[in-house]
């Protein structure tokens, strides 16, 4: 019964926090609800004013579906899953496993900006590696197909992904925090907003490469080829796996940018089998043949 209580309290707490965020009753720098909206409107405005693919509609194909995915994955699903994570936390505590018990590096004594930078880079590498696995193993790829079913790129496509990806990524993010001893997650709101902005830009209908910084930061031109329907010879599992940083792709030779027209076909070989309905996509990947 105690686990049910923990589950209920965690879900209620997350729900209340989200509602308080909507009502501006939380510090502005931790208001992820309105932060997501402001960032989305900003990047969408850039798409409208500086479109890369000029024949693409402002309300592109699946615009509203992707918009709903943003709020579902960031808030609705997070509210429900928060209870599960709380129960896991309590269970681990019974085995004396805490956030700091697995620390391999203590970064508590270095400046805050250094802690955030280390957290950002370390977390991004873990996400890059996880992303590679999503493409490499079919049991994971069939869920990741939802994200790759996007046929026209726009900022909201960033958060169009199957809810199972939250299950894959979230524990690894927590592991990063556990390995970095002394790091307080409350300080990570800066990293959070930076990651959202970069992710939105990567999927936006904007032609950005960042010049020499393209070897460090992921960008719309590079990421477009991650979504390409036709993959280069010898790269059947994909290219350009970077999340916020592109440097991992250059280091591990998974980078690929043949040209910059932005007019390539997107998707994958059997994307016609992907359901168009959001609720059907929720259950996609669980049955044989998906």
Estimate the helix proportion, in percent: 40-55%
Strand order of the largest sheet: 1-2
Q: Please state the average pLDDT score.
A: 90
Radius of gyration: 19 Å
Care to count the β-strands? Answer: 2
- The helix tally amounts to 10
Largest sheet, described in full? 2 strands, parallel
Question: How does the overall form come out from the CA principal axes?
Answer: globular
Beta-strand residue fraction: under 5%
Kindly report how far apart the N and C termini lie: 37 Å
Q: Give the class from helix and strand content and strand pairing.
A: mainly alpha
Contiguous uncertain segments of 5+ residues:
none
Q: Helix and strand succession?
A: HHHEHHHEHHHH
What can you see in these coordinates?
It contains ten helices and two strands, in the order H-H-H-E-H-H-H-E-H-H-H-H. The protein has a two-stranded parallel sheet with strand order 1-2. The mean pLDDT is 90. The chain is globular, with a radius of gyration of 19 Å. With 290 residues, the protein is mainly alpha-helical. It starts with a helix and ends in an 8-residue tail after the last helix.
């Amino acid at each position: 019964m105690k686990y049910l209580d923990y589950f209920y309290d965690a879900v209620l707490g997350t729900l209340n926090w989200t509602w308080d965020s909507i009502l501006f009753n939380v510090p502005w720098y931790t208001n992820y609800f309105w932060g997501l909206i402001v960032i989305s409107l900003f990047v969408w405005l850039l798409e409208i004013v500086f479109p890369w693919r000029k024949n693409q509609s402002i309300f592109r194909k699946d615009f509203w579906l992707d918009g709903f995915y943003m709020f579902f994955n960031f808030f609705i699903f997070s509210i429900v899953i928060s209870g599960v994570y709380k129960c896991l936390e309590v269970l681990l505590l019974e085995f004396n496993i805490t956030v700091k018990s697995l620390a391999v590096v203590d970064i508590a004594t270095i400046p805050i900006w250094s802690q955030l930078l280390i957290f950002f880079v370390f977390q991004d590498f873990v996400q890059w590696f996880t992303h590679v696995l999503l493409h490499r193993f079919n049991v994971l790829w069939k869920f990741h197909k939802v994200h790759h079913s996007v046929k026209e790129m726009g900022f909201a496509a960033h958060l169009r992904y199957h809810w199972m990806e939250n299950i894959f990524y979230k524990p690894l993010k927590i592991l990063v925090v556990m390995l970095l001893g002394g790091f307080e997650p409350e300080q990570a709101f800066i990293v959070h907003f930076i990651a959202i902005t970069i992710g939105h830009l990567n999927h936006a209908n904007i032609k950005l490469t960042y010049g020499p910084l393209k070897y460090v930061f992921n960008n719309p031109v590079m990421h477009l080829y991650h979504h390409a329907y036709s993959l280069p010879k010898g790269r059947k599992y994909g290219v350009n796996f970077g999340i916020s940083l592109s440097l991992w792709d250059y280091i591990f030779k998974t980078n690929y940018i043949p040209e910059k027209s932005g007019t390539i076909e997107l998707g994958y070989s059997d994307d016609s089998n992907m359901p168009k309905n959001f609720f059907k996509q929720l259950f996609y990947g669980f049955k044989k043949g998906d």
